[in-house]
């Protein structure tokens, strides 16, 4: 029963993909997930292990399993000039990139992958102890060229989708992050226009309150960045991603006093979670 449930879920075809101008791509999607489902249904006695590995005459297939669930949401901007262009990019076999969702400027949401599938959106990077971000995350792309504000209707769709995913998969508040968070020095999306503080008030991503915060004399920003989740091999790049996310700033150089207060407040917020 458990195995049948898992296979049924993998084979699930997105309702929005049944017909229309992307029908050929939808058929290719369905073919690929069916192939993955067939691999999942192979019983332990049919794995065809080499003769050099000792095996019993019988088998013991356990039913104590389920699908891996996403535990991280990565937000991107597309850096392109239309939703259509972005969707076409994710359908282009030469590009080899994908995201689970694309949210257009008018709030329309394309689901391009089942949430349980491993999308190719994050690339090289890490967050906390996670070094293979694609394997545990959902990628959401916002149609935005990186130099303009995000329309309210688009953010409203993002908010609704994010809260749905948070509830469905029990994703922690602090695990809604920017692409720039996991790849400092390589990525800068979503841009400084992104309204992180407004979303944080809805429980999507962490934020800070520096009221009454006093930074201790022995404060170590390297440690604080690492506690929040930033990869700190390149502290300068991590510092810049922190500024972009929480201060909407593209300033460079060492952190100023108020910036240190923000970083310290965020570290304390994470430690309480």
Helicity, as a percent range:
25-40%
Q: State the CATH superfamily name of the largest domain.
A: Peptidoglycan recognition protein-like
Q: What's the order of the H and E elements?
A: HHEHEEEHEHHHHH
State the CATH class of the largest domain.
Alpha Beta
Instruction: Report the total helices.
Output: 9
Question: Per the principal axes of the C-alpha atoms, what is the gross shape?
Answer: globular
Distance between the termini: 36 Å
Can you list the strand order of the major beta sheet?
A: 3-2-4-1-5
Radius of gyration: 21 Å
CATH fold node name of the largest domain: Lysozyme-like
Strand content: 5-15%
Q: Main beta sheet: strand number and arrangement?
A: 5 strands, mixed
Fold and architecture overview:
By secondary structure, the protein is α/β, with parallel strands linked by helices. Helix content is 37%, strand content 8%. A hairpin with a 5-residue loop joins strand 2 (101-103) and strand 3 (109-111). The longest helix has 18 residues, at 23-40.
Write the layout of secondary structure elements.
Blueprint: H1 2-11, H2 23-40, E1 72-77, H3 83-91, E2 101-103, E3 109-111, E4 137-142, H4 152-169, E5 176-178, H5 179-182, H6 196-200, H7 221-228, H8 235-247, H9 257-272
Parallel strand pairs: 1-4, 1-5, 2-4
Antiparallel strand pairs: 2-3
Helix pairs in contact: 1-2, 7-9
């Amino acid at each position: 029963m458990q195995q049948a449930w898992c296979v049924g879920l993998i084979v699930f075809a997105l309702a929005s993909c049944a017909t229309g101008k992307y029908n050929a791509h939808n058929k290719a999607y369905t073919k690929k997930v069916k192939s993955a489902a067939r691999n999942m249904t192979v019983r332990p006695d049919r794995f065809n292990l080499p003769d050099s590995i000792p095996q019993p005459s019988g088998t013991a297939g356990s039913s104590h399993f389920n699908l891996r669930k996403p535990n991280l949401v990565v937000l991107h901007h597309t850096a392109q000039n239309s939703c259509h262009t972005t969707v076409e990019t994710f359908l282009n076999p030469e590009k080899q990139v994908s995201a689970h969702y694309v949210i257009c400027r008018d709030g329309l949401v394309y689901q391009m992958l089942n949430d349980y599938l491993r999308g190719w959106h994050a690339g090289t990077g890490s967050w906390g102890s996670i070094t293979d971000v694609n394997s545990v995350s959902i990628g959401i792309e916002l149609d935005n060229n990186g130099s303009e504000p995000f329309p309210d209707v688009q953010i409203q769709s993002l908010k609704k989708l994010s809260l749905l995913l948070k509830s469905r998969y029990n994703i922690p508040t602090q695990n809604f992050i920017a692409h720039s968070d996991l790849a400092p020095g390589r990525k800068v999306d979503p841009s400084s226009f992104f309204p992180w503080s407004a979303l944080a008030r809805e429980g999507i991503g962490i934020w800070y309150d520096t009221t009454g915060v006093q930074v201790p004399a022995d404060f170590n920003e390297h440690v604080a960045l690492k506690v929040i989740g930033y990869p700190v091999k390149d502290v300068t790049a991590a510092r810049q991603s922190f500024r972009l996310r929480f201060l909407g700033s593209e300033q460079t150089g060492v952190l100023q006093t108020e910036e240190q207060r923000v970083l310290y407040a965020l570290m304390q917020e994470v430690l309480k979670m």
